[in-house]
Amino acid sequence: MRLRAIAAFAAALMSGTCLAHAATITIATVNNSQMVVMQKLSSVWEKKTGNHINWVVLEENVLRQRVTTDIATHGGQFDIVTIGSYETPIWGKQGWLTPLGGISGYDYNDIFSSVRQALSSNGKLWALPFYAESSFTYYRKDLFQQAGLTMPAQPTYKQIDQFAKKLTDKSKQMYGICLRGKPGWGENMAFLDTMVNTFGGEWFNMKWQAQLDSQPWHDAVNFYIHLLRDYGPPGASSNGFNENQALFATGHCAMWIDATSGAGLIYDKNSSQVADKTAFTAAPVDVTPHGSHWFWAWALAIPSTSKQVATAKDFIAWATSKDYIDLVGRTNGWTTLPPGTRLSTYSNPDYLKAAPFAGAVKQAILTADLDHPTANPVPYTGIQYVSIPEFEAIGTTVGQLMAAALTGQTSVDSALKQAQSSVSSTMQQAGYTQ
What is the end-to-end Cα distance of the chain in Å, rounded? Predict the structure, then answer.
């Protein structure tokens, strides 16, 4: 037995994987399809390094709450957290994250510069992007053809309304449109923000005064509720990104306006019933193109409380690398790889052949203008969020009020009046306004 143990130890030394130095890290992530694949393939990294991972996989709203609480209180539960382009620069400035520049052998220059910039502040990169996305319009080309409809390259919301009306057949569980209704700053508000933007609205004017009782907000919210009540699926107030993706993939939505990152699953014949029936076009516009499609990056970061920084960095470098993207393509299918982060992805012939949406996704990401999200000048950046620390609470409260209006618990006028009052109070208490 002793000889066998010595032999095993020697083999570990020779392979560079000495079990005495093995570490266990805890990773918090969202239950989106790309992250589920990351969890599945992480055994490759574990086998290579001898390290182990405890996974905490959560629904988006729950993930945000758990991670934000842990980070802000320095709880130290997680060695790696999945966060986005909203939180990353803010938390980095607060000293809550470990900088991720300077990892040896890591190809930073292959990452889209706009994505790097979105995850940086004070000259430091605080997270590495797992995937990036914008938003566009998915639609069923077979249903459009049968109905004699033509989807334009740049649809307007008036056209979307007409298409949804014609394509809805609730007796067959066919809904003209699916949109996010689940409350949350990153759920229903992510979509609704873009609608408010393109209807000519904004969260704040240049004096940081709330604008939620303005006409564009009323127009956008009323139109949003009309679309979902008249042409959307039942229980829309419970549907977020994943729920709508499942509805579209199983053939229940004629149109779906949402994240470009959903295209991989929709075009994957193993997981979608409409892979060969789907087409895509730009996100709709109304009175202005400003802010009509969003920008977001899901990224991996290390809380400053982690005791396993070296191991966590090693995993993040692996999971966001060109080699990992290639591994996903080869083992899970080229349409399903994490999109929107690396230049090399969009010169990969295997990916381009399998993913007809690749060029449109890249274009949408690169043209989403975080610095000019609205028609009127505003003091903030961000398209489907406002890049201030208070927005997480503000967006969650407003999202709940919008969901209440959608379900008929309150009127749009009352919901927006309450939203205006709540946001104004928060901004005054935070010192933005007098």
Answer: 76
For the entire predicted model, the pTM comes to: 0.90
Angle between helices 412-429 and 215-231 (to 10 degrees): 130
The pair phi, psi for residue 385, each rounded to 5°, is -160, 165
| Whether pLDDT at 428 is above 80 | yes
Could you tell me which of 385, 363, 381 has the C-alpha nearest to residue 194?
A: 385
Domains with residue ranges and CATH for the chain: 20-133+295-354 (3.40.190.10), 135-294+375-429 (3.40.190.10)
Q: Tell me the average pLDDT across 261-273.
A: 94
Residues 6+ apart with CB under 8 A from 59: 30, 31, 240, 242
The reported pLDDT for the residue numbered 4 is 52
Bridge partners of 58, per DSSP, are: 30
Tell me the C-alpha distance between 33 and 362, whole Å.
Answer: 19
- For residue range 191-215, list pLDDT tens digits in order: 999 999 999 999 999 999 999 999 9
Rg, C-alpha atoms of the chain = 22
Whether 412 and 221 have beta carbons less than 8 Å apart is answered as yes
C-alpha of 406 from chain center = 23
> What is the secondary structure of 109-166 as a DSSP string?
GGB-HHHHHHTEETTEE--EEEEEE-EEEEEEHHHHHHTT----SS-BHHHHHHHHHH
Is residue 102 left, alpha or beta, with left meaning phi > 0 and alpha meaning psi from -120 to 50? left
Query: What's at 278, amino acid-wise?
Result: T
CA distances from 433 to 205, 397, 428 (A): 11, 19, 5
